[in-house]
Structure formats: C-alpha cells, structure tokens
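Hi R.,

Here's the chain you asked about this morning:
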Amino acid sequence: MLPAVEPLEERIEAAIATRLATIAASDVYWTTPKVTRSLLSIDQYEGAAEADLGRGILGVMRSSGSVIRAHDDRDDTLMHYHRVAVWGYVIGDAVIAAGTRLNRLFADHLRCLLAPETITAPILDIRPDPDMPRDTDDGAREPRAFFREHWLVTATETL
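And the predicted structure, written out as tokens:
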C-alpha cells in the first residue's frame, strides 16, 4: 500500500504548477501559457508542439540546493528550504519579437507567484532565490527565447 500523502517537495512543485496554471490573458496578465512539469528542451518543440511556444510554456522543475533543517523550537518539525526552477519558453513572429513575449511571460509568472493567494499550505513563503541569478538565452536563440527563474520555497513538515 502506498502512503496517503505525497512527499513535501512533490506537493510544493505541484502547488506551484497549479498556481501558474491560473494565468490567463486579461487586464492582469499578458499571456495564457501552457504549464507543465514534464518540460522538454526548447528545441524539441516542433511541428504542432511549436504552437505552444507562441502562447508561452512554463515548466516547473526541481532545482539543486534545497536544504532541510530541524525546526529550532520543535523536535518533530522540519523546515524545508526547497529550490524550484520555473522555465519560460516562447517563440516570436513577424508581429511580436521573442524578447517581448519573453518579458511578458516572465512578468506574468512573477506576478502570479508573488500574489498573496499563492501562499497556501504547505508553503509558508515563496520568493525569487537571491542566490541564484535568472538565466536567459541572451537573444542567441531567436526567434525562440527562454528564461529560468529560481524560487526559494519555505515549508514545514511535522514528522
């Protein structure tokens, strides 16, 4: 029989993907991206899958450097500092450059994850990771473009 509850890291990554899936073009957001936890490399999106790049793709992936510590006040509680990477992929066209689409997708994902309603159990805090700079293609992959933003998520787990 399997455990009833997924590991904390899995619940964190799933919660972030679910939250990002609420992004829809409106007076708040520019884009309506596809959100996935099974991200391919940007060059693997060809043919019909390339259409997803036009609307933007956000991939939620684990990232190196997570730390678990015993809670200072309680022996039965662990503090998780879990690193998650959000990748954004786009493709430009004759009307909207890849850089413009990438900036819009980045702004949308940032606004979404920093909104107060993002903080729900098991997440106590989420913020861009100050120790991990944002990665980008630096315009070298036109008409495609990508970013990778690292997020630091704080959560507790009772043993």
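The longest helix spans residues 98-114.

Let me know if you need anything else.
M.
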